[in-house]
Amino acid sequence: MHDAKRGAGLVWADPAPLLFCAPARYAAARRQKEDPLSTDALKAEYLGAIAAADSLDRLEAVRVAALGKAGGITQLMKSLGGLPPEERLAVAPACQALREAVSGALEAKKAALGRAALEARLTAERIDMSLPAAAQPVGTVHPISQVMDELSEIFADLGFAVAEGPEIETDWHNFTALNIPPEHPARAMHDTFYVRPEHGGEQPEPDCDQQRRVLRTHTSPVQIRTMMTQKPPIRIIAPGRVYRSDSDATHTPMFHQVEGLVIDRGIHLGHLKWTLETFVKAFFEVDDVTLRLRPSFFPFTEPSVEVDVGCSWEGGTLKVGGTSSWLEILGSGMVHPRVIANCGLDPDEWQGFAFGCGIDRLAMLKYGMTDLRAFFDADLRWLKHFGFASLDVPTLSAGVST
Ligand code: PHE
């Protein structure tokens, strides 16, 4: 191994420093003639320095010293020009051979050093492909989003489009247009959050229900928005967030509903029943599902029906199927003619059904969570346990939940 000094020494202790000074040029060339063996000595010196160069930098220094502008061999070649022709003929071949030998050796050494450097890198930067990959944190799809995707997939197959509406809604869309006038007792049941005027809600005057804003208490205002902007026939679902001032293990101030609306000619309760049965079977992925339709009351449907799904207890958990237990999953009915008229449609021509279903409750029943509040705690352990792989998009053909 050569240290830097020694390497440099080898190079700069040039065997023919004479060749650098112009007055000595002719003497140098002449010397070749008188003593042709001196090219052999030069060659040995240069080749020795090349062999000793242990880095590309040092090799380059040898090249410059030998073949650079002021290099020994370059000077030697130049000095040939000053010789009489016969003398030149006598020494030129040896000089030429010297130059070729040195540049050949430089090339070969350069390639060898390049290969050695590559080898060194390959060894140093070696990657062990057999090691397990570093773990990447991967998020999961929240059960609510998963259920919304499943619902969209199931209803898309039945010809329903997905509609949306604002979560800060006018009092008129949320209540009045749905046949819940300002003094109607049903408003009290909704535990409404009102938006203060300074936060975008207008003056809370009772007769000013177009202006006053609420956090929507259900997804039913999307029925109104859809009927007012689309021509029948209409088939939509509207999944989304809704708000009520309520909180315990089965109620949170924000929760999720999916609204369904069909408006067409000659629609009757049978269509509603078939649609709900088809949806519940596809959603719970069980054929043996019994629905129980109970007469009920909603201001915006007539008749109104509450729908329970038949369940049974299996090892402490409630499973869909059987009829030993019933769980209410949605409210529904035939759209009230007054609601249809409120939206500018002729109720004698257009009829329809609507339903509103708690998404959180569907998710709890299908995937076995017991406390609704955990849905919104953002506890990573819960999300890892109940979440879904992000690339597993629900499809009817492959199973909506796998
Ligand atoms: N909007 C009702 C609720 O939140 C549910 C419903 C929707 C009932 C559509 C009938 C028709 O309870």
Q: Topology of this protein?
A:
Layout (H helix, E strand, L loop, with lengths): L3 H9 L12 H10 L2 H16 L3 H12 L4 H9 L4 H40 L18 H15 L3 E2 L5 E3 H4 L11 H4 L23 E3 L5 H9 L4 E10 L10 E11 L4 H16 L6 E8 L2 E14 L2 E4 L4 E11 L1 H6 L8 E8 H9 L12 H7 L16
Parallel strand pairs: 1-4
Antiparallel strand pairs: 2-3, 4-5, 5-10, 6-7, 7-8, 7-9, 9-10
This protein binds phenylalanine.
Phenylalanine binds next to β9 and β10.
Structure, explained:
The chain is of the alpha+beta class and 402 residues long. Helix content is 41%, strand content 18%. It has 14 helices and ten strands. The strands form two sheets. Strands 1, 4, 5, 6, 7, 8, 9 and 10 form an eight-stranded mixed beta sheet that branches. It has a two-stranded antiparallel sheet with strand order 2-3. Helix 2 packs across helix 6, helix 4 packs antiparallel against helix 6 and helix 5 runs antiparallel to helix 6. The longest helix is centred in the first third of the chain and has 40 residues. The radius of gyration is 45 Å and the shape is rod-shaped. The two termini are 66 Å apart. The site of phenylalanine has 10 residues, from strand 9 and strand 10.
